[in-house]
Amino acid sequence: MNALLARFGFGRQSKSQNDESYYTAGQLALIKARFKRKTSGVVAAWILGTLVMMGFFAPFFSPVDPTINGADPDYRRGAPQAFYFWDENGFSLRPFTYTYTKEKARIDLKALAGGGLNALDALTSSGALKASNQNKYVIDKEQRRYIQLFVKGWEYSLIDLSVGGLDLDIRWDRHLLGVEQGQLHIMGTDEDGKDVFSRTLHAIWITISIAIVALIVKLFSSLLVGGVSGYFGGRIDAVLMSITDAVRVVPAIPIYLACAVALSEMDLTPVQRYFAIAVIIGALDFPTLGRRLRTHILTERNQDYVLAAQLCGSSSWRIIWRHLVPSFGSYIIVDTLINFPYVILAETSLSFLGLGLTDPINSLGVLLQKAQDPDIQQNMLWQFFPVAVFVFLIMAFVFVGDALRDAADPYSEKK
What is the mean pLDDT of the chain? Predict the structure, then answer.
């Protein structure tokens, strides 16, 4: 009876039962159990999962089209529009925002038409030339705009599997938040009137997808070089390790600069440039994992199970991919996840320096590049929202990777 109650979560299992489940559990179950004991890792995993989900379904969570088609010409350089539940007009169960109209500069037309210094004084005193005055809007608190859920907006591709001859493009026009009249700008707009919040959500997934493609290229290169070099040894090992050392000692920035110059000379579409950057980042990041895999295979290739596979007639490639590489699988998974933030930093750094993706493509690097504008730093601080999202994303990856590394290490537990 106690065992049955314990199985459904009631009561406590005996110590012997816990010991038995520990010694009979698989590797993934042990890693999962150790990971759950890391509070920082669990919290970071929830934050990371939320950011990735919002980035993947960015069109649904975005209240405004992030492209120039959704730009609001009447709300350029607009401040964030806050939500309220009550004001001097009373309490409301539905959250609402106010109506914002741009404050027009008052110019003395008579003095302006007269010319000379009087016209210059009239123009400068009106504030029309000041960047700070261009951000001023009149808030009409008598005209509420209530927040609505699942509002109808611009049409977007929910699932697009149109590859080759397959034509499967599911489109939808519903969005999580919106207002009945006008547009909702949660984090304000930029100088073109494009919504900062929507652009940031789309940038998350573009940056993460670049990291995924780059890590796939890196993983394949590392497994190929490390597996072949460690298993065969000899001259093959010497040649491959010489190439690996050459790639490892060359600084990454000069190579990125050379690749950026080469890409600028090519007539590439944004998608082609996107994949080219991902492949370059992944191809230059394989030496560390490749060398560690080589060291592991050099140690494991003389074990009994490898000899047994050879006596059974297994080919060298089968032994490498079915026996040696999986024995190093937990480290490969952890190393790949830990390297996620570094790959994201590489793409962001390239775009920040103007060598990677460029506007109007939405990536975190592009948005961070815009944040270095002195005008934005002085008059549009809300455009630092992508910077905060970038910091949260990187820190979440770091904490999750650190917790997963400790969970995958069988010697990390205190006895």
Answer: 78
